[in-house]
Design a protein that fits this description.
Strand content: 15-25%
Radius of gyration: 15 Å
Number of helices: 6
Structural class: alpha/beta
Distance between the termini: 29 Å
Helix content: 25-40%
Shape: globular
Length: about 180
C-alpha cells in the first residue's frame, strides 16, 4: 500500500474513531457537524483545483429560515477547526453564514439540505465555478457537487460526477474512498 493511501486510510479511520468515541450521534443519515466539517476540510485539501488567494479558505454557509439551525451548527464547527489551527493547503478556514445567497469570494459553498432554495443556489454556485456541499444524498440530484452523510453507521463521501466536473480536481486516491454518482 502506498504511503499516500496509507495516510488517507489512517485519516479515515481516525475520523471514524472520533465520531464513535465522541458520544455524539448522527441523526438519520446526517453526520455530526464537527466530523462533517473535518471531512470537508480534508476533502478540500485533496482538490488541486481550489483557487486559493490570501491567507484564508472562505466557505460560505447558506442559510434561510428552514436551514438556520443546521447552517449555524456547520459555521460553529468550521470555526472550531479554525481555532484549532486546521488549515487547507496552508490557509486557515473561514466559514461565513450567508442568508442572502451572495457567496462571492467563497471557494466552497455549503448548503444544508433543508434550505428551501437548494437547487437554485447549487446552480448559482456551479455558474460561479464554486463547488457546493450538502448533507443529504438527495442533494446530489439537485446539483450539489458532493455530500457527507452517514451510511451503515459510518461517515461516507458521495460525489456527483456531473456536479464536480469542471469545478474540482480530486486526487484519485481519495476517489477510491468515495461513492460516485452520475
Amino acid at each position: 500500500m502506498s504511503t499516500a493511501r496509507t495516510k488517507l486510510v489512517l485519516v479515515a479511520l481516525t475520523v471514524t474513531a472520533c465520531l464513535l468515541s465522541s458520544g455524539k450521534t448522527a441523526l438519520a443519515g446526517k453526520v455530526d457537524p464537527t466530523l462533517q466539517t473535518a471531512i470537508i476540510a480534508k476533502l478540500a485539501s485533496y482538490d488541486s483545483s481550489i483557487k486559493l488567494a490570501g491567507k484564508e479558505l472562505r466557505i460560505a454557509v447558506l442559510s434561510d429560515e428552514n436551514s438556520a439551525q443546521s447552517a449555524a451548527a456547520i459555521v460553529k464547527a468550521f470555526n472550531t477547526l479554525r481555532r484549532k489551527n486546521v488549515t487547507v493547503k496552508g490557509r486557515k478556514l473561514r466559514a461565513v453564514l450567508v442568508s442572502d445567497g451572495n457567496f462571492s469570494g467563497a471557494r466552497l459553498v455549503y448548503i444544508p439540505s433543508s434550505h428551501s432554495n437548494l437547487a437554485t443556489l447549487a446552480k448559482s454556485a456551479r455558474a460561479a465555478g464554486v463547488p457546493s456541499i450538502s448533507d443529504s444524498l438527495g442533494s446530489l440530484s439537485k446539483g450539489i457537487s458532493l455530500c457527507v452523510l452517514e451510511s451503515k453507521g459510518r461517515p461516507s463521501i458521495h460525489i456527483s460526477k456531473s456536479g464536480v466536473k469542471g469545478l474540482m480536481s480530486i486526487d484519485s486516491k481519495l476517489l477510491r474512498l468515495a461513492k460516485l454518482h452520475p
